């Protein structure tokens, strides 16, 4: 594992999309492999192992993770078991995953080997994966059928090496045309484009600041853009926080939110520098779906997150997606509906819900994955004052009663700040203030950055302080201002 001294120098380049290419390409290649396996004639009882050759091509082209390679090996094994004429084909269930993992290992570690500018991987993987897989298969066969040692050592193992040599020839013969075809059809990036897609699996990445989410020196530039929308942002979200992020439109708040969910860099293309850690794990070393079980997000156009016809179907959909057992779904639906106070609406059609109720339903769907951290992007932009108040009462309860850590992007600070313990100000992609609510509001007022969002009552206190009056308590609400004025009354009378 490589250690990184200065995380701000570590880059992650990614082109948008493409996370399912390995499935598309592997499916196509294994289909070709199966046809060749069924029709190819053998010469003297020897034929290339087309299944191995084709999944080696797919793995060399798409560079899947080890877990994905294991999946490829298991699918190849099933194909072999179903199409084999052998008396004992079940050894494939072990030998094919070994072959696919061998191939993935070589692709990860020997990609630098080139001959006259061409990758040596097809030759190497074709040979090594076939020898490893074939070796495992004949060893299982020897013990399963009780074959004598001389048959194993003088017949079976040499045959495996011969088939390995044949595959070292046929794999590159399929790899290079396949590469050209997939690139020309736009299914695969060209080699130049692939060379800029990063792989962080070899890095030892650990947060230097503890936190449920630790953002360290994060800079981010969207695909095809030249100016970063986040510029060296460092921020830690701690357990139990109710953190509000604010800033002018376009200051990078939603982008920061997307970085917490892993959509940046995994979904949006572009260049990310620095790192985001969730639960101590670098987001470049995990997947969006795994992050979703830790960080639940409600987007500003939350209606787009609804997919079903009725309230209970909507939550059941989220639960089924997580693989929750059918007998547990009913109870889980009851629990999340209780949490978001939608129990009386359980069988209601989505079209008969108000905007606020639909929003609660989206939150219920997010809660169904049981994430510890909840991220809300401009949640109240479409709500009236009463709906906004109800929303924050609900989120407050999720924070204090159910222990969820909350991150909210908000322009309406008057509504959100009574519940917040921290306020962060972003300006042109830079984090300008991170502190308790009073500290950041003072910063906004003093530096005239997004000062129009400072609650009126707090701005009034700032105006009075400017005029020379001092107050012990920050005026974060009208009630706090009244109490503070009552305390300060004697001093004010003397001053007037
Ligand atoms: N997918 C994208 N591709 C390219 N640029 C983008 C993309 N999404 C956002 N941007 C740009 O990134 C910058 C920051 O946008 P972002 O949405 O993060 O800001 P914001 O503070 O949340 O704004 P708002 O309050 O208006 O939602 C903006 O200049 C925006 O145009």
Automatic annotation (TrEMBL):
The entry lists its GO molecular-function terms as:
ATP binding; ATP hydrolysis activity; ATPase-coupled transmembrane transporter activity
Q: Tell me which GO cellular component terms the UniProt record holds.
A: ATP-binding cassette (ABC) transporter complex
UniProt-annotated location(s): Cell membrane
Q: Any stretches that span the bilayer, and where are they?
A: 20-39, 45-62, 69-88, 123-145, 151-176
Output the PROSITE patterns linked to this UniProt entry.
ABC_TRANSPORTER_1, ABC_TRANSPORTER_2, SIGMA54_INTERACT_1
- From which domain of life does this come? Bacteria
Report the residue ranges that make up the ABC transporter domain in this protein: 213-453
One family from Pfam that matches here is TrpP
Keyword terms: ATP-binding, Cell membrane, Membrane, Nucleotide-binding, Translocase, Transmembrane, Transmembrane helix, Transport
Tell me yes or no: is Ribosomal protein among this UniProt entry's keywords.
no
Record membrane topology: Peripheral membrane protein
Q: Give the similarity note.
A: Belongs to the ABC transporter superfamily.
Q: What is this protein called?
A: ATP-binding cassette domain-containing protein
State the organism of origin: Megasphaera hexanoica
């Amino acid at each position: 594992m490589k250690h990184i001294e200065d995380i701000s120098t570590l880059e992650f380049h990614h082109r948008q999309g493409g996370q399912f290419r390995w499935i598309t390409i592997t499916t196509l290649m294994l289909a070709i492999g199966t046809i060749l396996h069924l029709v190819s004639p053998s010469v003297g009882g020897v034929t290339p192992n087309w299944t191995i050759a084709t999944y080696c091509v797919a793995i060399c082209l798409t560079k899947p993770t080890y877990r994905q390679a294991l999946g490829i090996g298991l699918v190849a094994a099933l194909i072999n078991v179903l199409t084999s004429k052998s008396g004992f084909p079940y050894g494939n269930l072990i030998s094919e995953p070994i072959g696919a993992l061998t191939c993935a290992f070589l692709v990860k570690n020997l990609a630098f080997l080139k001959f006259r500018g061409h990758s040596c991987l097809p030759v190497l993987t074709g040979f090594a994966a076939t020898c490893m897989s074939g070796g495992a298969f004949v060893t299982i066969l020897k013990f399963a059928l009780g074959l004598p040692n001389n048959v194993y050592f003088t017949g079976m193992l040499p045959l495996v090496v011969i088939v390995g040599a044949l595959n070292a020839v046929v794999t590159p013969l399929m790899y290079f045309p396949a590469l050209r075809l997939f690139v020309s059809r736009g299914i695969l990036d060209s080699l130049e484009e692939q060379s800029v897609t990063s792989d962080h699996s070899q890095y030892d990445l650990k947060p230097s600041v503890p936190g449920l989410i630790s953002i360290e020196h994060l800079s981010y530039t969207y695909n095809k853009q030249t100016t970063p929308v986040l510029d060296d942002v460092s921020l830690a979200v701690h357990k139990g926080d109710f953190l509000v992020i604010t800033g002018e439109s376009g200051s990078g708040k939603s982008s920061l939110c997307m970085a917490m969910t892993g959509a940046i860099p995994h979904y949006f293309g572009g260049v990310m520098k620095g790192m985001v850690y969730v639960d101590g794990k670098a987001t470049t070393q995990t997947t969006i779906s795994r992050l979703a079980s830790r960080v639940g997000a409600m987007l500003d156009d939350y209606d787009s997150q609804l997919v079903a016809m009725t309230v209970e179907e909507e939550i059941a959909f989220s639960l089924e997606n997580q693989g929750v057992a059918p007998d547990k779904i009913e109870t889980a639906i009851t629990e999340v509906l209780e949490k978001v106070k939608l129990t009386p609406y359980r069988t209601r059609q989505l079209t008969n819900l108000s905007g606020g109720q639909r929003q609660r339903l989206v939150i219920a769907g997010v809660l169904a994955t049981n994430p510890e951290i909840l991220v809300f992007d401009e949640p109240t932009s479409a709500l009236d004052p009463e709906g906004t108040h109800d929303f924050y009462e609900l989120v407050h309860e999720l924070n204090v009663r159910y222990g969820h850590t909350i991150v909210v992007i908000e322009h309406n600070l008057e509504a959100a700040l009574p519940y917040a313990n921290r306020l962060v100000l972003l300006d042109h992609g830079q984090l300008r203030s991170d502190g308790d609510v009073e500290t950041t509001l003072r910063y906004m007022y003093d530096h005239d950055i997004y000062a129009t969002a400072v609650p009126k009552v707090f701005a009034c206190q700032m105006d009075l302080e400017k005029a020379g009056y001092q107050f012990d308590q920050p005026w974060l609400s009208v009630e706090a201002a009244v109490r503070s004025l009552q305390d300060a009354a004697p001093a004010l009378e003397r001053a007037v």
